[in-house]
Amino acid sequence: MAMAGTWDIAVVGGGIFGLACAYSCARRGLRVALFDKGRTGGKASGGIVGAMAPHVPEQWNPKKQFQFEALCSADGFWSEVDAASGLSSGFGRIGRLVPVIDERGLELALSRRQGAAELWGDRFDWTHLPEGHDLIAAKAAPFGVVRDTLSGRIYPALACASLRAAFVAVGGEVFEGHAVDEISSGRIAGPWGVVSAEKVILASGVEGFAMIERWTGRRAGSGVKGQAALLECDLGSAPQIYADGIYIVPHANGTVAVGSTSENTFADATTTDGQLDDILFRARAICPVLQAVIVKQRWAGLRPKARRRDPMLGPVPGQDGVLAAMGAFKIGFGIAHKVGEVLADFATDVPVDLPDSFTVGHHIS
């Protein structure tokens, strides 16, 4: 029998943005259904790295402010979600270490310390440690390290599982294995049937870009392949490390994630290769404690990058009642809960003060 039904909000896509939007709308008392062609928390949102880090505290702009506000409120959000679900998202406010490799880097570190004091207030610190840090090889940080206390970590797959359960706990409905191939004002459809909704939130990542391109005739975004590895190493709540373009993220479950590549051309989005081997080699040179540990998992997937890089949020031009929540690329887990609130505002016709660079129109103009 074909499925039918009516909801206030239909969310298409069960990655971190779709789950966050669905949860935020359901918490406001709306009847929300989430549809995913596979399973929730899959593809890019089922990754392993989970670094949550701020932009540098200089040349401040609305985008940096948006991400800063999201990171500041992450503790409360994930604590609430985990309490509602009875699961762990793996969130932790562990801070971050960044090696300083030359005199220019040292100048920047010291100037950004003042910027952090002015822009971040007294809640979080940006500190230069001239003596370095035990986790980082001395030769990798000849001018010490910068440590910030704002950065956090999360385990992506666990966070999606916790958020899905919290969404269901507040009355949301999840339909996995329900591919959506048609979206129009007030309805969505697939091989399984047709349902009605006052508003539709498109949050299906790379596949969502194709749908927007079909509507607008303009390129909306693309997938960037990332490769990462999970190592068996218990560093507890040690800070994450960002060095030489690599994130090294200690997780609460006794593993350390290392990643990732950013590949615009590739033969297979789901396989790992020598590029990941190179990242592991460099990571172990930076953080010697990883030298002898076992690689537990190798991961690859596509991350959705909007045409002009910033997230793509809000009304889709020419599509009445259709909203987008896509294009997070590397910062999705850091801003997801704030994105959810923004989309819930749009869905309930609450005025939204959003950076122009985050709008759908900005990316397809």
Would you write up a description of this structure?
The chain is 31% helix and 26% strand. With 365 residues, the chain is an alpha/beta fold. The protein has 2 domains: 6-47 and 157-221 and 307-364, FAD/NAD(P)-binding domain (3-Layer(bba) Sandwich); 84-154 and 222-306, D-Amino Acid Oxidase, subunit A, domain 2 (D-Amino Acid Oxidase, Chain A, domain 2), CATH 3.30.9.10. Strands 1, 2, 8, 9, 10, 11, 17 and 18 form an 8-stranded mixed β-sheet that branches. It has an 8-stranded mixed β-sheet with strand order 5-6-4-13-14-15-12-16, with helices on both faces.
Q: Give the proportion of residues in helices.
A: 25-40%
Rounded radius of gyration (Å): 21 Å
Distance between the termini: 42 Å
Q: What is the count of helical runs?
A: 9
Could you state the CATH homologous superfamily of the largest domain? FAD/NAD(P)-binding domain
> For this structure, what is the CATH class of the largest domain?
Alpha Beta
Q: List the helices and strands in order.
A: EHEEHHEHEEEHEEEEHEEEEHEEEHH
Q: CATH fold name of the largest domain, please?
A: FAD/NAD(P)-binding domain
Number of β-strand runs: 18
Unreliable stretches (pLDDT < 50, length at least 5) are none
Strand fraction: 25-35%
Topology:
Elements: E1 6-12, H1 16-27, E2 32-36, E3 51-52, H2 62-72, H3 74-85, E4 96-99, H4 103-119, E5 126-129, E6 145-148, E7 152-153, H5 156-169, E8 173-176, E9 182-184, E10 187-190, E11 193-202, H6 205-216, E12 221-232, E13 240-243, E14 246-250, E15 255-259, H7 274-286, E16 295-306, E17 312-315, E18 322-326, H8 332-347, H9 360-364
Parallel strand pairs: 1-2, 1-11, 2-8, 4-13, 11-18
Antiparallel strand pairs: 3-7, 4-6, 5-6, 9-10, 10-11, 12-15, 12-16, 13-14, 14-15, 17-18
